[in-house]
Amino acid sequence: MSIKNIMVIGGGIMGRGIAYAGAAGGYNVTLFDIDDNVLQEAEREIDRFFETAVERGKLEATTAEQAKAAMTFTTEMEKQASHADFVIEAVPENMDIKRNVFEQLDQYTKDDVILATNTSTMSPTEIGSYTGRPDKVIAMHFFNPVPKMKLVEIIRGLETSDDTADATRAVAEQMGKKTVVVNEFPGFVTSRMSSLVGNEAFHMLQEGVGTPEEIDRAIELGLNYPMGPFKLGDLVGLDTRLRNLEYLHKTLGERFRPSPLLVKYVKANRLGKKTGKGVYDYTEEGERQ
């Protein structure tokens, strides 16, 4: 099947980044969300992505304009899904929400359409079971911020076919991404490692080992990480980090039990950049604990 039309479900941070990457890669992209205000904000941010790409010489101005013209923003899932050749779901990491989305997509899309879930921990095998085409369900783990991060971790479920995995890799590569294809296991590769590091950083902070700045700097310079665990957690969202840890604790055991301090930050709505304060302060006064 020739893939020309991609539909992205969810206009949040990840969905809008994926939609941009698809459009910049030459696909016709439809971005769906139930909230028109979210779509308007997503469209404005995607415009900024294109402006930045042109300024930095990554895209020609004419190419960017053509890509933007090939994008559609909609609150009508059924009508637009019927035209899709490939769908990427990017809703919150909640299995009930994902189940509802995939049951609808299975009904609205053509039978040969691949249904991908953007998830950092959840099971493509379980998600595939909510459809009549588990062989065409796969996970694509994009990284935040999508326009900058090169990797897409592709995760095969138990029933995922070779053709589905090959086609998904081709889609990601046309978006300009590097890929790894792995078999499903809770947390996959990157999320298991990142969750452990981020959780241990919160344990260190709670124990008074160092300040967030000192711990981040030690990891960045000593282990050559491009971003320390607290900076990364604030970027991804501490609520997302907590949900991932709770899932991994449930499925893989005690070593993933969330730090009490992380739980406290989330209860205080200190979720990171999206709320203006996480481990660091992102208000006008600066970035401090």
TrEMBL record:
What keywords is this UniProt entry annotated with?
NAD, Oxidoreductase
> So what family is this one in?
Belongs to the 3-hydroxyacyl-CoA dehydrogenase family.
Report the source organism. Alteribacillus iranensis
Note the SUPFAM superfamilies from the entry. Answer: 6-phosphogluconate dehydrogenase C-terminal domain-like, NAD(P)-binding Rossmann-fold domains
Q: Which GO terms describe its molecular function?
A: NAD+ binding; oxidoreductase activity, acting on the CH-OH group of donors, NAD or NADP as acceptor
The segment(s) forming the 3-hydroxyacyl-CoA dehydrogenase NAD binding domain are 6-184
The biological processes this protein is annotated with in GO are: fatty acid metabolic process
Site note Important for catalytic activity applies to: H141
Q: Which residues of the sequence carry a binding annotation for NAD(+)?
A: G10, G11, G12, I13, M14, G15, D33, E93, K98, S120, N144, K274
Name any one Pfam family assigned in the record. Answer: 3HCDH_N
**InterPro entries, alphabetized:** 3-OHacyl-CoA_DH, 3-OHacyl-CoA_DH_NAD-bd, 3HC_DH_C, 6-PGluconate_DH-like_C_sf, 6PGD_dom2, NAD(P)-bd_dom_sf
Question: What protein name is recorded for this chain?
Answer: 3-hydroxyacyl-CoA dehydrogenase
